[in-house]
Write a structure and sequence with these properties.
Elements (H helix, E strand, L loop, with lengths): L1 E3 L3 E3 L2 H4 L6 H4 L15 H14 L5 H10 L2 E3 L5 E3 L10 E4 L3 E4 H7 L9 H5 L2 E5 L5 E5 L6 H10 L3 H4 L1 H8 L1 H19 L3
Parallel strand pairs: 2-8
Antiparallel strand pairs: 1-2, 3-4, 5-6, 7-8
Helix pairs in contact: 9-10
The structure holds iron/sulfur cluster.
Length: 197
């Protein structure tokens, strides 16, 4: 485990594992599977409420109904604020691209220049998950899920490790200095322990 900054404990999986999403293979299953929505902050919820009219027509008809009835978020059994989901499946903000790929309607609008918010940082950081510990430290853990097998295969093929693949959201969440410290630790670790892998 790396200690980065004052209080972030980062799993060695970020350097030992390879990862690169392969949407053509997985078809964006992470926006569908699972028993709860994506963790979201109060600030992110405000932002999503602001841009909701812009993405409304891209949402699934059932998602519009669910949002109208239950809002865009709820508290999961652990008391964490998460995005609303459809009948134990899709995130309400998911939509479908040609070829049946499930994508995020918020990210789609962002990439088309229609909104200035990309998507909740917890989604962008996946397969890393953050947990605030009782002493205030933040643990950065790797979540291994069989639906992402193709990302592990593609990452290994391309030589892209988790910390490299997630540079942008890690900078967004923790800042450039923090990321540079993490990257320096990872490079040293590769040199010392993984250079023959
Ligand atoms: S996180 Fe996993 S399921 Fe989601 S797009 Fe990447 S590889 Fe596919």
């Amino acid at each position: 485990m790396f200690l980065i900054g004052d209080n972030t404990l980062v799993t060695l999986d970020v350097v030992e594992r390879f990862f690169c999403c392969d949407l053509d293979s997985c078809l964006g299953q992470c926006c569908i599977d699972g028993d709860a929505g994506a963790p979201v902050t109060q600030d992110e919820l405000l932002k999503i409420k602001e841009i909701l009219p812009e993405i409304w027509d891209d949402l699934l008809p059932r998602a519009r109904q669910v949002i109208e009835q239950n809002g865009i978020s709820y508290l999961d059994p652990e008391g964490e604020l998460v995005t609303q989901i459809l009948d134990n499946s899709n995130c309400v903000f998911s939509c479908y691209a040609p070829g049946g790929k499930c994508i995020c309607a918020i990210e789609k609008a962002y990439r088309e220049g229609r909104v200035n918010f990309m998507k909740p940082v917890s989604c962008a950081l996946y397969p890393l998950r953050l947990k605030t510990l009782s002493n205030g430290n933040v643990a950065v853990n790797y979540h291994r899920w069989k639906i992402c097998k193709s990302a592990e295969v593609l990452g290994r093929k391309k030589g892209i490790r988790v910390y490299q693949f997630l540079k942008e959201p890690l900078v967004r969440r923790f800042g450039e200095l923090w990321y540079n410290e993490l990257a320096a630790n990872c490079e040293l670790y590769i040199k010392q322990y993984l250079s023959d892998k």
